Amino acid sequence: MMSSRSSTYSFFTEVDSFLLRTSTIKRCTSTTSVKVPTTVLFGKKNKRKQQNSRGQPAQEKQSVQDQRFDAATRQFMFTLVGLTKILPDKSKKILDNINLSFYPGAKIGIVGLNGSGKSTLLKIMAGVDSEYDGLARPLPGAKIGYLPQEPSLDEFETVQEAIDQAVQSSRDILDQYNELSLKLADPDLSDSQMQETMDKIESLTNKIDAGNLWELDRVVERAMDSLRVPPGDASIKTLSGGEKRRTALCQLLLGSPDMILADEPTNDLDAESVAWLEQFLDQYAGTVVCITHDRYFLNNVAGWILELDRGKGIPHEGNYESFLEAKTKRLEEEQKQQSAADKAVANELEWIRSNPKAKGNKSKARLSRYDELLVAAAPKELRNAGQIYIPPGPRLGNEVIEVKNLRKSFGDRLLIDDLSFSLPPAGIVGVVGPNGAGKSTLINMLIGKEQPDSGTIKIGETVKLVSVGQKQMEDLDPSKTVFEEISEGLDEIELGTQSVASRAYLSWFGFKGQSQQAKVENLSGGERSRVQLAKLLKAGGNLLCLDEPSNNIDEKVLRSLEEGLLNFAGSALVVSHDRYMLDRICSHILACEGDSKWFFFPGNYAEYEANKVQRLGEQSIKRITYAPLVNV
């Protein structure tokens, strides 16, 4: 495979690659032409020489080149040639001369900073965005399925009607089969009509066998259960954003496209649903291109990683772990001296290479080094290096949170039944469970926004609590700039006993240069999440309550946040479906295991999962279940 960033890469195989020559392809939005590569030569060793075309008319030469290009690209599920995208205000070239080809069956994960063009690339491939230079072409006749971050569903339909759209062609085949089977019982059929009917039935039977359509109803039910899709009779217009995403994802998968384009498919999925999705995609024969910040998902599904960096597409063959290794080497080559960001990559690579026992021991070690974390405070090299630093609040006493016999219902559902646990100083507790289990409700009770039906919650006298919730992004002032919203107009921000330049603090969360002057109203979801984190983490609390902090945050900021939490001189409760993050930072897991029962476990997520299998067996919760609500 060529090492040049500007070369075209063929995913999933090293046999063939594009070699750059010249031709002309019209811009999609005007008659302006750009020079892009079109001549395709196959094979790395036995490259065919270009035919001498001197003396040929220009139109004839162009026709020959186009024919060669068409023939060559028919082996690819999708082809991008010279793809360039400039933002509407012409302030930034977000994609710069990208040349990629995707083989059938390839599984590609796209990573990169917020604003690097990941969603834009998928929109172009899905045909949603046509304002670009170059070529973006699927295999003729290929069925492309696309899941945007905010899917659009018909609000006048029920969930079942939306799901049935995806399998309508399959149901039509089954209906035709049943109709013809009944026709065979007609005594008035002539021999020729009988033979014609039997031939049609045979053809339909072959289609049904090939698509395993005999099991269609079971497959649909299993997919809806596994993805926690709302009940079939629920109206689309009553669904939350997460429920709509799960419905749209189920619709996409059941539609059996030749190529899946998915923008953050694991958002709003619990751990069991993500595990099912991984298994589904592993067995899926088509091509998958997905944007995700779920690093375990990338490790388990992706055969290639495509990093978008400063407009360029940098492909890597392998999963996320091998991508980290390659990126570490690349960073070392680009700059001889490691920065804090490079060290964060190296720290993550060291962690991911360690065995499961070592990973768990590292998380638990926090509990015995609270004093060390407190004394370390903020080393100068960390404060000045662009890594997220979470300032410590007052020194924690021995009592942080003590919960006894907690009980909470919502409507006619009993969410939490007889929950007791104690959070130690420096403990980081991952709160996990299926969607609808009551995780956010639990956090709201701990921070005093909701009251339990019975039981007690005791917060230690030394605790200063800081909370970052999913809905707090609505509290941001859309008219302010990023700098104004985070710094409140001050040149310096106080972080505990330290102070740091406001603009430097903003850079820790990925806001540098002109991006600090961007209006909040123009920010993406990931950028808004970073603004909210930056605002709340400067408050100097010693107990953090974070509700889905990893949603929509790019891997660089997420890695920095993990490092910040690992070095934080305090305790934290983290609601998350990000198994990788839970494994890396947690000393304890608080999990909903069905029937309104919760389990408090000392260890990280992988250790908890192993323990759950020992206690409950392999069978996981298909749908969240609630114990009967009985007044006590």
From TrEMBL:
<keyword id="KW-0820">tRNA-binding</keyword>
<dbReference type="InterPro" id="IPR022374">
    <property type="entry name" value="EttA"/>
</dbReference>
<feature type="domain" description="ABC transporter">
    <location>
        <begin position="401"/>
        <end position="619"/>
    </location>
</feature>
<keyword id="KW-0067">ATP-binding</keyword>
<keyword id="KW-0694">RNA-binding</keyword>
<comment type="similarity">
    <text>Belongs to the ABC transporter superfamily. ABCF family. Translational throttle EttA subfamily.</text>
</comment>
<dbReference type="Pfam" id="PF12848">
    <property type="entry name" value="ABC_tran_Xtn"/>
</dbReference>
<keyword id="KW-0677">Repeat</keyword>
<dbReference type="GO" id="GO:0005524">
    <property type="term" value="F:ATP binding"/>
</dbReference>
<keyword id="KW-0547">Nucleotide-binding</keyword>
<keyword id="KW-0699">rRNA-binding</keyword>
<dbReference type="GO" id="GO:0045900">
    <property type="term" value="P:negative regulation of translational elongation"/>
</dbReference>
<dbReference type="GO" id="GO:0019843">
    <property type="term" value="F:rRNA binding"/>
</dbReference>
<keyword id="KW-0963">Cytoplasm</keyword>
<dbReference type="InterPro" id="IPR003593">
    <property type="entry name" value="AAA+_ATPase"/>
</dbReference>
<dbReference type="Pfam" id="PF00005">
    <property type="entry name" value="ABC_tran"/>
</dbReference>
<protein>
    <submittedName>
        <fullName>ABC transporter ATP-binding protein</fullName>
    </submittedName>
</protein>
<feature type="domain" description="ABC transporter">
    <location>
        <begin position="78"/>
        <end position="335"/>
    </location>
</feature>
<dbReference type="InterPro" id="IPR017871">
    <property type="entry name" value="ABC_transporter-like_CS"/>
</dbReference>
<dbReference type="GO" id="GO:0000049">
    <property type="term" value="F:tRNA binding"/>
</dbReference>
<keyword id="KW-0648">Protein biosynthesis</keyword>
<dbReference type="GO" id="GO:0006412">
    <property type="term" value="P:translation"/>
</dbReference>
<feature type="compositionally biased region" description="Polar residues">
    <location>
        <begin position="52"/>
        <end position="66"/>
    </location>
</feature>
<dbReference type="GO" id="GO:0016887">
    <property type="term" value="F:ATP hydrolysis activity"/>
</dbReference>
<dbReference type="InterPro" id="IPR032781">
    <property type="entry name" value="ABC_tran_Xtn"/>
</dbReference>
<keyword id="KW-0378">Hydrolase</keyword>
<keyword id="KW-0810">Translation regulation</keyword>
<feature type="region of interest" description="Disordered">
    <location>
        <begin position="43"/>
        <end position="66"/>
    </location>
</feature>
<dbReference type="InterPro" id="IPR003439">
    <property type="entry name" value="ABC_transporter-like_ATP-bd"/>
</dbReference>
